[in-house]
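user: Here is a favour to ask of a fellow structure person. I have my own habits and do not want them to colour yours. Could you put it straight underneath, so I can go through it closely?

assistant:
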Amino acid sequence: MMTEKEISAALANPLSMPWDAEPLLGGAYGEEEVAAAAAAIRSSMEPKSGFGFSAPPIPDFERAFAKYIGVAEAVAVNSAGPGLDIVMRALNLQPGDEVIVPSVNYDASPLAVLGAGGTVVWGEVRQRDYMLDPADVERKLTPRTRAIFPVHIHGMSAPMDEYIAIAKRHPHPVHGPAKVIGDAARATGGDYKGSKIGKLGWASIFSFQTMKNMTTLGEGGMIVTDDVELARYARSVRMYGREAGAWGTSNVMTKVQAAVGLVQLGKLDSFIAGRRRIALERNRLLEGVAGIELPPDRECREHSFYLYALTLKPEWGGAKRDEICRVMREKFKIGCWVANIPAYLVHPYLARHCGCSTPVSEKLINQVLCVPIHPLMSENDNRFICAALISCLADL
């Protein structure tokens, strides 16, 4: 923990820039990305080539990403949202079919379930890491459960092996064990028990949106799977679905995005190493501060640290947590955030169609405080942020 002298010294060195809790560029771009984009454009300038349909280097990016994750197939799409939709539609959900989704979540996952005709069953999260609680999954699994749909919240892996074991213990009477599908939008580059996040489960969906761990010109996504039939379906319906004989629309990635994606993928491990470096030092600086619990993975070996999420003691939650956010923003120019309020509390459509039924999660989320982190954050800025937070907590 920082001493009073260290806190004063850190606050005497101003930030290099104001920091948002979720910076608008999550990785870093250089001349390599500019050159790759320009080359892809130049290669498309002849009428005989153009920008093509799923033309190189899109397949090259898919193969490289599949190899990075350790899966058989990767299918590039224009955004993670359509990727979620495609995988949900592949289940061919019928009226009454259920999908268990954590309520502490962004809107995209439950909306994908509804869009595919399924019924959202809200799952509670557990306090130590805000992951979909396997015990609650087992309680809520029924003969109508078709899928378990966890989110790798904050950039750390959900316990995929536990969900898979639960699904095997309680198979669907027609379709067998429920499919375990990972929403890995925020977890690109993270690890889980010796493999990359995305290796386990029927499918996982990654985001390359501008704020994520890597980005393909601000938007983009990838579906990964070992199921060849699922990959074939996804490739078809991302371009209207003729080969699959299924409904589809245009959700293709462009050649220019894929060219930049190959460069970003080559840098991804360095981005994750930068996030872990900041998180490890921050853990040391905040260790022992009264009233806060540090994120899981204290040694920073698996967590990708897309977000650095602290848990405040219960009496500092809610309004007091919001006051900390206000002071951090107004006094220190540091944006803090709550990730994520149960989706049905912030999206009226989800509230109307899915109800509101996770009291444990609603209580827990009042204690969450996400503090800025970025792979290029300087040691000075990290120390300033920690000192500012300790100062705010002391004022309580």
Notes: The two ends are 18 Å apart (CA to CA).
